[in-house]
Amino acid sequence: MTDAILIGGGHNGLVCAYYLARAGLTVTVCERRHIPGGAAVTEAFMPGYRNSVASYTVSLLHPDIIRDMSLARHGLIIRERPISNFLPTEDGRYLKLGGGLARSQAEVAKFAAKDAARLPEYYAMLDRVGDVLRRFATEIPPSSGDGLSGLARALLSAEALRRESLETQRDILDLFTKSARAVLDEWFESDPVKAVLGFDSVVGNYASPDTPGSAYVLLHHTFGGVNGKRGEWGHAIGGMGAITEAMAKACGEAGVDLRMNAAVARVVTRHGRAVGVRLTDGTQLAAKRIIANVNPKLLFEHLVAPEDLAPDFRRRIGAYACGSGTFRMNVALRELPDFTCLPGREPAEHHQSGIILAPSLDYMDRAYADAREHGWSRRPIVEMLIPSTVDETLAPAGHHVASLFCQHVAPVLPGRDWGVAKDEVADLMIETVTRFAPNFRAAVIGRMALSPADLEERFGLIGGDIMHGAMRLDQLWASRPVLGHGAYAGPIPGLYLCGAGTHPGGGVSGLPGRNAARRILADRNPMRRWLGYFRPGRA
Hints:
Elements: E1 2-7, H1 11-22, E2 27-30, E3 42-46, E4 49-52, H2 63-68, E5 78-80, E6 85-88, E7 94-97, H3 101-109, H4 113-137, H5 147-162, H6 166-177, H7 180-187, H8 191-198, H9 214-220, E8 225-226, E9 229-230, E10 234-236, H10 241-254, E11 257-259, E12 264-270, E13 273-279, E14 284-292, H11 296-303, H12 311-318, E15 327-333, E16 354-357, H13 361-374, E17 376-385, E18 400-409, H14 418-436, H15 440-443, E19 444-450, H16 452-459, E20 495-497, H17 511-524, H18 529-534
Parallel strand pairs: 1-2, 1-14, 2-11, 6-16, 14-20
Antiparallel strand pairs: 3-4, 5-10, 6-7, 8-9, 12-13, 13-14, 15-18, 15-19, 16-17, 17-18
Helix pairs in contact: 1-10, 1-17, 3-4, 6-9, 7-9
């Protein structure tokens, strides 16, 4: 019998497995695909062209995890974007953000001098709230099921918030409850400025920037950094799979047993406790504890027997909101896009940035309304990254690969099937980019399109949800995924969760995996429980 079995070899599963093995536990990871990494993988989508096929950019990966797992020694290199974002507008202008505050202010001033003046204060506000979020992201949330230790964590969390300035407390309340538009309207007047800053509010979020709570999704995407620089985004050389390949090597060194093509069919229980798993080929594996790195709906509606769960818990998991409205494409290009607003086919800094094709918050709002009515927005939101401009390993010389992260599409089409509609929607996404870069359609020599149904089938992302559940107030912190089980321990003794469906949520951060490992190690020894819960730097 092994000490722990991990269901799912995505990045959070690998992080959790590593910390458990480093603490001396025997650990087995069961991954249903032929490679580890979950949605953070690099694969060839046509001969000679490789890309990060699902997750596609890095910022949230926690520096402590990079250090502890020696990911640089295992080959990980993260290269920063020269600028953060490039937003073409429909009137032939453009806005660039990044490359330093003074430069960003000069760009914003092209649209509104008042907005340029307010930009430093806005960024300072995000940094203040981001510091609070960074601290809370490394903590185990309170849980009513944890008795006195859960109560103590709740009191300490409340006290930490109380010590913040009143201004910061107000900003936290705004960003956790208001819509992105409501927050941005308080700060800025220019539509392009609000668009480039508000885009993050709909990333992986099947909602409008007018939806209450969408400001938090904006915040969630800003509290990371790259190479010690806050708020920056970058590319993993070799694609996102380079991150999980390095993690797998670290796990191997720590003694983790990584099993590929080992799909779990059922969590096995005995006398009300999780004691093992049964694979789809009938193999049974026993363990002292089971840790699930999968979407909570997938775990509790498909891998756990209904009779092992209380009726109220089953009902609440049934209501757990999933489905991020995402359509993901990888395309091979014979040349770089030549934008009408900024002509040129030679690699330039705007090709190396996050290219946002959504020129206003109104545009984003209409895209969401359109998707709800028709199944997909006829003028969709597209973010394009071209990682081959900084990573020559991904495409043949002179050619490129691009990631198209597209919103909004309905997770389930009304009266249609994604298998039938996928090519039509993929054509629309190509045409959307071509409206801003007229050579784009002719430059495409191959493509891979992943609908929400494909993302679910390939990566276990229920409803295509890249976050393993909507990032809204009722599904955050101690209530992610369900209040009373938000501290990584499931409703069945011996069953834990460590994926993005737990605090602090989606993105390639590794924090759910590390926090879960701390919880599990603390539970092994009640005398050390308080130490394990309250020292975030210790796994």
